[in-house]
Specification:
The protein is built from 21 helices and 19 strands. The protein is of the alpha/beta class. The strands form six sheets. An eight-stranded parallel barrel has the order 5-6-9-10-14-15-17-18, surrounded by eight helices.
């Protein structure tokens, strides 16, 4: 069995000539013919070279790997019961699914509170993030969930002011924080500012704390989508040169006269901006955490990518030793549109494997009474069943699920439908629900009543899309929890899951479905 698709993908806008006859190991057509124009990835690489490394079209897509892993969350099933109730009175009139409490509190002082057990774990400088920020920020704030401003936002801001290589003023970062704060309600949620190497050199987090009042900052070691730094494409020479001057790796060199001439001639149309890879050491990590706390950070997080097991252990140990408030472990693979496609498919530890390791490592530390931060896990979570499984497999240590592609998709769809409504050109697929926002978005009427007309009118359709998607996730998760008779999240446990295959049981440490309740079954039948 082949787990990978190679040489053809919608992500790289490539396909095989002989779609029905493909060599499994290479992905090539069984017969490669002289005279073919090169529709496959090999062929396209013959004339576009390094451009074909990346998913396309850049700026309007999010992407995720096509690789099928031997074990994933579909190999686990949720175990319900018809007995008892946890977190509520055992009364059929009280133990109803709307009564399930999804609120989460984290932080060293319990000061961060979220209405739902998920967050957007990093939306940075890509066009797809910037162009949908209104929906993401306002929707997250209204829902009472956390939102992370990802890497390179300040560095990419052509209107940011730098003095001696340190940021003193911004446009984009201020806008992103303001949009979230303006719609935050009752103290729920949090805006988080993330930093990579370039952000740290620019003093982004110190600026965010000092000038914008940001309380939550996140150190970034990596993400599940790739094991190198952040990347974007630049179509403007002046901007490429500005980013080069700010210390980014820009390819080809936008200050080289021959490159400039070739760009003007149209020999190529895009520059690539790359971030550097980090060099983690405990000494530098401890120093940076101390610097952020001295600068006024109230909560310090860490996000790590799908690196090898020793790196996951290192991340958890450092987060424990230096008493961080949240550690996010992001399994392979997905992203907001600019990760090398083959890398996204073929590197890293897949989510179930990584999350099982994280649970085991956390339990080892907890058994020694070591401090543990709240844990979040990421890697392809989109719906309530996956959220349930991620929380249950990591219980009691995993408190939050990290998402990005699902929320971005919801915000993009909401924005698109809003434009269609305004233009009176509603697609037939949507028109059957109505012709106004209140008719199409099922949460809109209640939101108007709750917020009042004046504030409601400020809410963009993208935010309605995200908020409505979250409403669906919340109701679905409450139903699953009620079916397990768990009426608040602290009662979730690994026994709420069963492995459907022996391999899944071996990897996760969960019981195989045929072994679940074996002792209790014997007691019932032999009584």
């Amino acid at each position: 069995m082949s787990y990978s698709r190679v040489n053809t993908s919608a992500a790289t806008l490539t396909k095989n000539r002989t779609e029905g006859s493909i060599t499994p190991s290479s992905g090539m057509c069984v017969t490669c013919v002289d005279g073919c124009i090169g529709m496959c990835e090999i062929g396209k690489s013959a004339y576009r070279g390094h451009e074909v490394i990346y998913p396309q079209p850049f700026g309007v897509i999010t992407t995720a790997a096509e690789k099928q892993y031997p074990v994933d969350y579909s190999h686990l099933n949720i175990m319900g019961t018809c007995v008892g109730a946890y977190g509520i009175e055992e009364d059929s009139d009280r133990a109803i699914f709307p009564a399930v409490d999804l609120e989460v509190r984290i932080g060293h002082d319990g000061g961060l509170k979220f209405r739902y057990p998920w967050l957007i774990s990093g939306i940075g400088s890509t066009d797809v993030a910037k162009n949908n920020w209104e929906g993401l920020a306002i929707g997250s704030a209204l829902a009472g969930t956390a939102l992370t401003i990802g890497e390179n936002v300040v560095g990419m801001d052509t209107e940011a002011t730098l003095v001696n290589g340190r940021v003193t003023d911004t446009v984009d970062l201020k806008r992103r924080v303001r949009l979230y704060r303006e719609f935050q309600r009752d103290g729920y949620g949090a805006i988080v500012v993330q930093a990579n190497i370039e952000d740290t050199r620019l003093g982004v987090q110190e600026y965010a704390i000092r000038e914008l009042g940001v309380e939550c900052v996140e150190l970034k070691w990596g993400q599940g989508a790739k094991n190198i730094g952040g990347e974007v494409k630049i179509r403007d020479l002046d901007k490429a040169q500005l980013l080069h001057a700010r210390g980014y790796v820009v390819l080809p060199d936008p200050t080289d006269p021959m490159v400039i001439e070739a760009f003007h001639r149209g020999a190529f149309k895009e520059f690539e901006r790359h971030s550097r890879v980090g060099m983690v050491s405990e000494e530098s990590f401890a120093q940076r955490v101390a610097e952020l706390r001295a600068a006024g950070a109230k909560y310090v997080f860490l996000k790590t990518g799908a690196y090898r097991p020793a790196d996951l252990a290192r991340a958890l140990k450092y987060a424990s030793t230096y008493k961080l408030d949240l550690l996010t472990a992001d399994g392979a693979s997905g992203g907001t549109g600019m990760s090398p496609w083959r890398m996204m498919n073929e590197w890293g530890i897949p989510p179930v494997y990584m999350h099982a390791m994280l649970y085991g490592y956390a339990k080892r530390l907890a058994d020694r009474n070591a401090y543990l931060p709240a844990l979040a896990v990421g890697g392809g979570f989109t719906f309530e069943d996956l959220i349930f499984k991620g929380l249950a497999m990591g219980a009691p240590y995993v408190k939050l699920i990290g998402m990005a592609r699902g929320p971005v998709a919801a915000a993009m769809v909401g924005k698109t439908i809003g434009k269609a409504i305004d233009a009176h050109q509603i697609p037939v697929y949507v028109e059957r629900f109505g012709s106004t926002r209140e008719e199409v978005f099922v949460t809109a009427s209640a939101m108007r009543t709750e917020l009042g007309a004046a504030l409601y009118e400020k809410i963009p359709a993208g935010a309605l899309g995200l908020y409505t998607y979250y409403e669906r996730l919340a109701q679905g998760l409450r139903q699953l929890l009620a079916g397990c008779r768990k009426f608040s999240l602290e009662h979730m446990c690994r026994d709420d899951l069963a492995a459907l295959t022996t391999e899944a049981a071996e990897i996760t440490g969960l019981r195989h479905v045929m072994d679940v309740d074996r002792g209790r079954v014997d007691q019932i039948l032999d009584a």
